[in-house]
Amino acid sequence: MSLEGKKIGVAYTGSFCTFDKTFKELENLTKTGADVQTIFSYNSQKIDSRFGNANNFIDKAEQITKNKPILSIEDSEPIGPKSLLDILVIMPCTGNTIAKLANAITDTPALMAAKAHLRNQKPLLISISTNDALGMSMKNIGMLLNAKNIYFVPFGQDDPNKKPNSMIAHTELLIPSIEEALIGKQIQPIIK
Fold first, then answer.
1. Closest by alpha carbon to 153, among 120, 191, 182?
2. Do the beta carbons of residue 174 and residue 149 sit within 8 Å?
3. Which of 17, 25, 31, 61 is deepest in the core (most CB within 10 A)?
4. CA pair distance 42, 73, nearest whole angstrom
5. CA separation, residue 69 to residues 8, 30, 177, 183, 191 (Å)
6. What is the pLDDT of residues 124-149, one digit of tens each?
7. Looking at the whole model, is its pTM more than 0.85?
8. Which helix (H) or strand (E) holds 12?
9. Residue 99: its H or E element
């Protein structure tokens, strides 16, 4: 399937350690000819970390996509009523965001984008990154795995010895995951 001309949202949440990988995939996504719109959660747009400066990430997203990122709940809400996206990806999706999404909490631009987008019964793709996926977050991941119109980029343990509960998406599978989700299919296997 060609992604050329598809309207794809990419919502960033605060797993800063994965931003290098996710920005590489954001670049690859734009090379497909898709029209990509980024959305930043409050934490991802405000917290400077050892992985980089928040303002630099916002600027980088705009340079890559040529679209100004969405930074507020008010600006992400029209995604639903105006049917602005064909698919929305939350990449990276933290355990905090997963928990809120599983419990219908919409207190960030990324979560409002997800809620607004799902009202149109269009695919939402989760690119997981959480240190407690095999701990307290597992119940929320399970809820989302069973939810209509929600799909996952395949994921697996990133460091079983030092962080046995941690799981992270195989972001190199982002584009094929999008292609499958757009036709209503979950790419397999989910856990690698």
1. 191
2. no
3. 61
4. 9
5. 13, 14, 23, 26, 31
6. 999 999 999 999 999 999 999 999 99
7. yes
8. strand 7-12
9. helix 95-102
